[in-house]
Amino acid sequence: MTNDYRFEFRPYQRRFLRSLTTNHGKWDIREGIILRLTDKSGKVGWGEIAPISWFGSETLEQALDFCRQLLEEITDEIIFSIPDELPACQFGFESAWEMGSRGAGEQGSKRAEEKNLNLSSALHSFSYSGLLPSGEAALNQWETLWQKGYRTFKWKIGVNAIADELKIFESLTRILPASTKLRLDANGGLTYEEANLWLRTCDNLKANPEVTLEIEFIEQPLPVEQFQQMLELSTSYETAIALDESVATLGQLAACHQQGWRGIFVIKPGIVGSPSRLRKFCHQHQIDTVFSSVFETAIARLAALQLAAELSQNNRAIGFGIDHFFEQEETWFQSLWNDL
Fold first, then answer.
1. 268 catalytic residue (yes or no)
2. Catalytic residue among 40, 43, 156, 206
């Protein structure tokens, strides 16, 4: 039986407290779309479309065009037939649908209750990875995050000259407390020679008994089109490599797995595509995952964390330590919905 929903949407903008700098450039404002689906009985499901076009999703404009051409009444069928070229839309609509429809009927509310219990215990057991600013600022910022309870940090590399970054990295490895885990994220910005140099440096650190912190992995050292070289590097060094940009969408994820990638997959639920198809893929292949944020609001974050709680295999810290990048505006969501 097909269900009908009343569909509404609102675009939003949130300014970063300070520009986020990666190898892709500077990012000042996070833009996205909040969705609301209301079924015949008045049950409401919220969703969020939070695209990052330079990362492999559709653009905000394409997502808005898609929303604008829909009627005020939409069906399950429409939600589950959103094309793969709109992965952030697939995630937003399907998670709003899940949120609204999970509680249908007595059985449904029982299942929803169980699910919420499982989710809340999983969320409490998660450790989170805190994102450090690029460059020297990381040397001061880590302490604030440490005091907030973070024990895994991610630091952006491939932003400044490699000689400078290696110096800062050496200082970081000296000042970070024992038992810290550090992830280095290149956003595809290294050359093959630089990737080898970073991996060699990390391997040497691993072999040094005086260094007590753990380099967990280097994330996306090379551009997406250099998959074979990353595959080769992953077998040449002790230090693990995680794919990120290379596996931005479900199609890319499946292609890399098919071509032999058995290392770590960084999954950004907000842009990966359909949650139901992601579940199916992860259950089928038991891949080693790190779930990560796309700087979404609490709406998409809850749906993303639900997936992380279900699908994380190896107890790796999840990349949602991003609250310190935005002002905490408790009221922005209500005003977004009421003002328009």
1. yes
2. 156
**Per-block average pLDDT, block size 10, for the chain (340 residues)?**
91 88 83 95 95 94 98 95 98 94 48 52 74 92 93 94 96 93 95 98 94 94 97 97 97 97 96 97 95 92 92 86 70 63
Among 110, 154, 181, 268, the active-site one is 268
CA dihedral 273, 274, 275, 280 (to 10 degrees): -110
Q: How far apart are CA 223 and CA 191, in angstroms?
A: 9
List residues bridging with 130 in a β-sheet: 153, 321
Q: How many CB atoms lie within 10 A of CB 147?
A: 8
- H helix runs in the chain, sequence order: 60-69, 76-79, 87-101, 105-125, 138-147, 162-175, 192-207, 227-236, 250-258, 269-272, 275-285, 298-311, 332-339
Q: Quote the pTM value.
A: 0.89
